[in-house]
Amino acid sequence: MTPAFISLASHFSLLKLRVYAQLAQDTQLPSFKGSMLHGWLGHALKFVDEKAFHVLFGEHDQQQPKPYMLLPGPDLKTQWRKGEIYTFELVLFGDATNFADRLVEACNLGHKFGLGPERCAFTTVCIGSVLNNQITPGLHPQHLIDYLPAASTDQPIAEVALNIETPIRLKQHGKILMQASPSLEQWIQHILRRWKLLSQFWVVDDPQLYHALGQELPSIGDYEQVEHLYYENWERYSHKGKQQLPFGGLKGQTSFYGDIARAIPWLQVGQYLHVGGKTTFGLGQFSVIA
Asked: Could you give phi then psi for residue 119, rounded to 5 degrees?
C-alpha cells in the first residue's frame, strides 16, 4: 500500500448494517430485490426525515454517486412464507454514516409501507453492524483500512480470482461489456474512479491527495488471465419511468496469475465499494479470492 492509498483508506469511513425482517404473511417478492429495497427505503426515510431523504435520495451533480448501497442478498427465490426472515445489508460511505440513526429508524418504521408488490407486512427483528464477519448490536462505523488485510508484496508472483456475485455493468467504448472481462489494469481504473468520486463528494475534498493516488497506481508485471464469465440479462421495472430498464451485466469468475501482488489491495477496495453501474441497488458486487 502506498502513502496516498493508506491515507485515503484511513479517512474513508464505512458502516455496514445487516437487517433481519420477519414476514407477517405469505407473499411474492422479486427475484432480485435491490430495486424493491431502494424504493421501500426511500419512502420510509422520507417519512422519517425529509432532509436525510433529500441528501441520500435526491438528484445532485450528475457525477455525484450515492453514498450508500443496498445489498439484497443471494436468495433469489420469489415465493416466501409467513414467518420467514429476509436478510439484507445497507452500506453507508463517508458522511452518510452521520445519517445512520435516521436510516435505522426508517428500517424500524418501514413496516408501514410493506415489502414487494403485495406490500407484505413485516417486523424488523434485528439490525446490527457487520464487523469482521461478525454481527454486533448497535452502530459501529469503521474505516476502509480496517477491512483491508495486510498484503505482502515481497513475493510479487500471486494468484487472485474475482468471483462476481451480482451483475457488473462495466462500459468499454460507451457500451456495456457482455463477454470479455476487463484486463487487470482496467479493473484498477474502474476501482480508482469509483473510490475517487465517493471520496470527493462524501469524504474529503483534497485534489492533491487524489492526484497522488492516481500517480501511485500499482506496478503490474506480466500475468495470465483466465475467464469463466457469462452475461446475465436482468431487468427492473421503473415506476418513475413506467418501463422496464436493463439491469444485466457480467457474472462468473475471472482469475489473474503473475506479477500482480501490488494490485491485490486495490481489488480488495473494490470488493467493499463495488464497481460499474447501479451499485446503489447492489450491482457490481464481487469477492476477492487471493
From this structure: 50, 50
Query: Measured between alpha carbons, how far is 62 from 278 in angstroms, rounded to an integer?
Result: 14
* pLDDT for residue 236: 66
The three-class DSSP label of residue 189 is helix
Residue 231 contacts residue 148 (beta carbons within 8 Å) = no
Q: In 3D, which of 53, 50, 23 has the Cα closest to residue 114?
A: 23
Dist CA 266 CA 263 (whole Å) = 5
CA distance 254 to 225: 7
Contact 48, 108 (CB under 8 A): no
Main-chain dihedrals φ then ψ at residue 90, nearest 5 degrees: -125, 125
Instruction: Give the Cα separation of 190 and 116 in Å (integer).
Output: 33
pLDDT for 241: 60
- What does the alpha-carbon distance between residue 261 and residue 213 come to, in Å, rounded to a whole number? 18
Angle at 265 between CA 262 and CA 270, to 5 degrees: 130
Strand partners, 130: 135
Low-confidence ranges of the chain (pLDDT < 70): 150-154, 235-243
Q: How far is the C-alpha of 176 from the C-alpha of 167, rounded, in Å?
A: 11
Count CB-CB contacts under 10 A for residue 113.
Answer: 16
pTM for the model: 0.90
Give the three-class secondary structure for 163. Answer: strand
Packing angle, helices 264-273 and 184-202, rounded to 10: 50
Q: Where do the DSSP E strands lie in the chain?
A: 13-23, 27-28, 68-71, 79-80, 85-93, 122-131, 134-137, 142-143, 157-168, 171-172, 175-176, 223-232, 235-238, 243-246, 249-259, 286-289
